[in-house]
Design goal:
The chain has an eight-stranded antiparallel β-barrel with strand order 1-2-3-4-5-6-7-12. It has a two-stranded antiparallel sheet with strand order 8-11. A two-stranded antiparallel sheet has the order 9-10. It has three helices and twelve strands. With 241 residues, the chain is mainly beta.
């Protein structure tokens, strides 16, 4: 099933659930409107490249979050927005601070490859039970960028940085997972285990080893270009109904 078909199915099923749920009368002891409609989750994820992307880069790790706005009383249909950032490789070397000073002052030059993602779309959830499955789909973006920074051997922060390469592409997403209640009450907490597949377009990106140092403080950048599909496998917690 394509992303377009799954998106249409989620919307159609959610509309039906919402229409039936609208017949439920409102309870007087419900929490405020904002608490009833909004929830969020935070998670750690592992990125597994697929297709052309898998031939060029390895796995990555990162963190993310999602916000959900419930469109019906039970929470079966919601609008979901995701954001996340992580890295998929780095390299580091120690070099003199400058040729003028010589080798007495050494610094660490670290180059990291990053992935930044975001998206929005509908989510359909079974809102009751010990295990609560969900599916979602949407439109998204992917940003690939590589940065180099410099810090001293005794420093905990960098004092100079440069973005060596950056590019972005739109994407379509499909995903799913399960919520498992960990704590009930006015503000429930649920375990969130899920995945999201990003069907990204073509983008230019780097990997460890893509930047070569040349004489006279010059560099050579060998960038790669391909379609950028990958899967994020997520583990986190959801706070709210």
């Amino acid at each position: 099933m394509s992303s377009h078909h799954l998106l249409a199915a989620v919307v159609a099923l959610g509309t039906a659930v919402s229409a039936a749920d609208g017949q439920i009368s409102r309870r007087e002891d419900q929490p405020p409107w904002f608490e009833r409609r909004v929830s969020g989750s935070v998670d750690a994820w592992v990125m597994q490249p697929t297709g052309e992307l898998r031939e060029n880069i390895g796995k990555g790790i990162g963190v993310g979050g999602a916000g959900l706005f419930r469109l019906d009383h039970s929470g079966a249909l919601a609008l979901r927005a995701d954001v996340g950032i992580g890295g998929y490789g780095e390299e580091s070397k120690r070099v003199p601070l400058s040729p003028t000073i010589g080798g007495r002052i050494q610094v660490d030059v670290t180059t990291r490859n990053y992935l930044f993602v975001g998206g929005i779309g509908p989510q359909l959830t079974l809102p009751y039970g010990i295990v609560r499955p969900y599916v979602n789909a949407g439109v998204a973006f992917q940003v690939f960028f590589t940065e180099s920074d410099v810090d001293g051997s005794d420093d905990s922060y960098s004092f100079a940085s440069t973005t060596n390469q950056s590019d972005w592409t739109p994407a379509l997403t499909t995903g799913g997972g399960v919520y498992v209640p960990l704590r009930h009450g006015r503000v429930p907490v649920l375990l969130d285990l899920g995945f999201t597949w990003y069907a990204g377009g073509r983008a230019t990106y780097l990997k460890p080893g893509s930047i070569e140092d040349l004489p006279n403080s010059q560099i050579r950048i060998t960038a790669m270009e391909s379609a950028t599909p990958f899967i994020l496998v997520r583990l986190g917690v959801k706070i709210g109904r």
